[in-house]
Give the backbone structure.
Amino acid sequence: MTSTSQLCRSDLFEKRSELLNRDARVVLSYERAKAIGLAHGITLHDTLHLTQKFWDMHTDPIMVLDGAASTLLTIQYNLVAGTLAQYAATTRPDLISVVEDILRWDVIGQFCLTELGRGLDIFRMKTSATLLPTGEFDLHTPLPSDAKFMPPTVPVKGLPCVAIVFAQLYVNGECRGPRPFLVNMNDGYHMCNGVTSKLLPPRGGSIPVNHALTSFHHVCLPPSALLGDLDKSNRMHRDFMCSIWRVAVGSLALGSIAIPDLQMSSYIAARYFQRRHVTSVYGNPSPILSYRTQQLPLLHAIAQAFVLRALYKWAIEQFMDKNLDVRVRHGVAACCKAVMVQHAQLANCALSERLGAQGLFEYNRLSNFYSEMRGISIAEGDILGLSMRLVADTLARTYALPLSTHPDGPLALHEISLFDEATETVASSSDFTQAFMQYVQPRCQLMVESTGHRMAHDAAVDQGVSQCLVDLYLINAIKTDAAWYVERGLFTRKAIVRMEEAALSAALPRLDELLAAMKVEPYVSSPIISDECWEEFSKTLPVYSSPQAEVPAQPSLLLE
């Protein structure tokens, strides 16, 4: 049992947030984020040194119960506390108390990096911080398009809010590159002087976060607001990437939320498939789980949950290995995020569709899971952008990712072939950039996902994941580019179908065992998993009826 297995049954999490208005939902998400963080007991040491406790927090099933809470939590603990902890442990011991306040949720922390008009081109941000003769800084947003985009900086819950704001540092008229500044945003009730936050409408399909546009009008900052020094650097871009290194941590940590996402979605779907019956061609009631159309996406999702847990364990070891080039470590995080989000999104879509109309409702969670994972695919490194950068660096031989531990396996051969084809394409062209943009760039995400598939399969085999689950994972990865395997003569289409059938037949009898092993049952609140849950849920629904009508007793839903 995890440290939150009781918390998820508290009133804080039993409350059905979809019935609340936006403001109430936002406050509830902050309260949940705080409760999760305190339950895990994350300390300055944990966030600074990225202990196992830090990584484990992100795969706790409670993280998918409220996507807004998990967003707030990762901003608070990883981006803000993590960034400040690095300075607190070296040059700025005065920040220790600030970090501790953030970890206790006495202060809300935000991370203002991306600008509305820049997107991924963050190095060329326009927000400026000009050194004044007094030693103070003038923080300013020149144009509306230069506003910081997304961080929820509006006042909430009466708690003061600070933010790490990135701005171009100007000294004596000279731009010295983007630097982080610690800025007071609001006191929990009112915005600080010169700071404006425009509340954006909610994102579609997900639990609302108070996403906003934040701008600054000649805000005077004390000298201590600057995190770092004033010195001009001769490696400005690399120093900037070092200052936002917690984004790479977030790529791996946020991507890992796909693991409890897959666990929860497959558990909900499995119990519904077992409960939901239809009349068979023989006239007898039969659970829809008896159909291959339900079994295939379900068992593939379960297999991916187990395999991705092995991948996550391996990736953490790689990411924490300081003997590796930091770009290699970031590359591993990018591959993991790409493949984790890919599996979760395909599973959420397939399983949600097989719930029929029930899959559309927020109370059953799967449609929310899909929307929340869309946000994760963009946050802390957009997957497409990460993929293009990774492939470009690989083709330029800037660095090399860890090699396969099973180099003769089909996934390793597929990965090597895709990169060889891309290398040949750019090498045969007189213009590397043009060839890359025209022929390679559209395939970058597929290439990175192929590396992620190989890494995941290697990790699962090396860590002894059950063979039937490894086989299911392998088949699913092959099916993402089946044409290549057929083209190379490794498998025929019929052979792929038969391999999938054999793996599925081996895994299906173990369904209840596999569901129990995921240990997510206490976290599931979807009412469709049993007749009893649905009956209790139906009692909470508003009833519209004529005065003479009687509400019928709830029948068994065996043949609904």
Summary: The two ends are 34 Å apart (CA to CA).
